[in-house]
Design a protein that fits this description.
Strand content: under 5%
Radius of gyration: 21 Å
Order of helices and strands: HHHHHHHHHHHHHHHHHH
Helix content: over 70%
Length: 439
């Protein structure tokens, strides 16, 4: 009970952020209280750091890359092109925006897709004089697709990185399993959003009112360099995977390369992008948050909570791959919606790790189902992920307020069919590609 009470208190402070208190400091304060009371031990720190370091630094490097490309104008350039492809019809534009969000989420993580693309889409809709109800349909689509399609690659979500690192799943193996499943998630997301908003979004707009895409490019050098750097980065993930190279190493090299280009190192020309502002805007608090929050979660493990969850998972596993997939995925989704997806993914991973005698195909299905639940489950509630809370905050700053009650009504309509379809795809696809619990 003490471990649970400390976890809840820590989570409240992380979500509440009183007086602008950073999420890292709240999480670390909770960890120190756990250490002081003996809920976790000093010897647990290296164990937790081994779990989180690769995921944390990969995430920070990805956000730095995203911020640099946003400053260069790449995302606005892409959004303006997509708006032109819509041919002046809102019901064509909506699925195109969803597809753009899915592509950005796959490469730049869900946070990058939601937090960087949403303001750009809002600005374009304002320039096209979309009414508030129609604009809201696109805003919701942008926010939700960032998470529902954050499954395909290890780098697409911090949850994915933590899980892949914990279970030693290689980049190639992960993509082999999850890319087709993500396609299913994308198709169902498109279908659900289309059903909900096809009338609301069915507005005409004047394509000529759009800015020329080239006008969005603020740093041509970084813009041109982005394409080969991103292609090399993706290729490097697959090439280095068999050698066990951490994805953080590859991502950091990509971030440093873009920083050097943006800073005009080795040239006499002045930089266009303020590198120091980009680095200050990187989520450094996530480093402290990851260690602190996962130490608090490890306290739940020490107190036996993961054993209780493992008993439920053992029951699911006893009834085959379908029950294991759905049971694990739905449980992970519910936990994520209540206690945030970052703690939930580790709770689920630790619980699965307590099942050594489960058949490898069933165990692997549960690993991926835990990821799916923790990627999609946060969309049930505003507190399910920090990205959602930040997204709502960005919207409020832009003059669009979505109450928690309204958000949950939307989340409860969109998320269940996508979650069910995605877990179904997992249960069907995994036996086809075969079992391999190591990458």
């Amino acid at each position: 009970m003490l471990a649970l009470a400390l976890f809840i208190a820590t989570l409240i402070f992380v979500i509440w952020q009183p007086r602008g208190l950073g999420i890292g400091w709240s999480a670390m304060a909770g960890a120190f209280v756990d250490l002081a009371l003996g809920v976790v031990h000093w010897r647990n720190i290296p164990t937790v750091w081994h779990i989180v370091w690769n995921a944390t630094f990969t995430f920070v490097a990805l956000i730095i890359i995203s911020l640099l490309l946003d400053e260069a104008g790449l995302f606005r350039w892409a959004a303006l092109h997509v708006a032109r492809w819509g041919r002046g019809r809102g019901r064509i534009l909506l699925p195109l925006i969803v597809l753009l969000g899915a592509a950005i989420a796959a490469v730049f993580a869900n946070d990058g897709a939601a937090l960087l693309l949403t303001p750009i889409v809002m600005a374009i809709l304002v320039s096209l004089e979309f009414p508030p109800a129609a604009a809201l349909a696109f805003i919701i689509a942008t926010g939700f697709v960032a998470d529902t399609t954050s499954l395909p690659l290890v780098i697409s979500n911090l949850v994915n990185i933590v899980s892949a690192n914990f279970f030693k799943i290689g980049f190639t193996r992960y993509a082999t399993v999850m890319v087709p499943i993500d396609v299913v998630s994308l198709i169902v997301t498109l279908a659900v959003l289309g059903t909900m908003y096809h009338r609301t979004a069915d507005r005409t707009y004047v394509v000529a009112a759009l800015d020329v895409p080239a006008s969005a490019i603020r740093d041509p050098l970084v813009f041109r360099a982005a394409w080969p750097v991103l292609l090399l980065l993706l290729a490097a993930y697959f090439i280095t995977a068999p050698f066990g190279v951490p994805v953080s190493f590859v991502t950091i090299i990509g971030a440093v390369a873009l920083l050097a280009i943006a800073g005009r190192l080795g040239t006499r020309s002045a930089p266009v992008i303020d590198i120091h502002r980009v680095l200050r805007g990187a989520p450094w608090q996530v480093v402290i948050f990851s260690l602190g929050m996962y130490l608090v979660v490890y306290g739940l493990r020490n107190a036996g909570l993961t054993n209780d969850i493992a008993r439920a998972l053992r029951l699911f596993a006893a009834h085959g791959i379908w029950t294991a997939s759905f049971g694990t995925g739905i449980l992970a989704a519910l936990l994520s919606s209540i206690m945030n997806n970052m703690p939930s993914v580790l709770v689920g991973a630790l619980a699965i790790n307590h099942l050594p005698h489960v058949a490898p195909p069933i165990r692997e299905a549960m690993i991926y189902a835990n990821i799916i639940g923790c990627d999609l489950g946060p969309k049930f509630t505003p507190i399910g992920s920090l990205a959602t809370l930040l997204w709502l905050h960005v919207l409020a700053q832009k003059g669009t307020t979505i109450t928690w009650g309204k958000y949950m009504k939307i989340g409860l309509l969109i998320t269940p069919p996508v979650l069910i379809a995605t877990l179904t795809a997992l249960a069907l696809w995994l036996p086809i590609v075969g079992s391999s619990t190591h990458g």
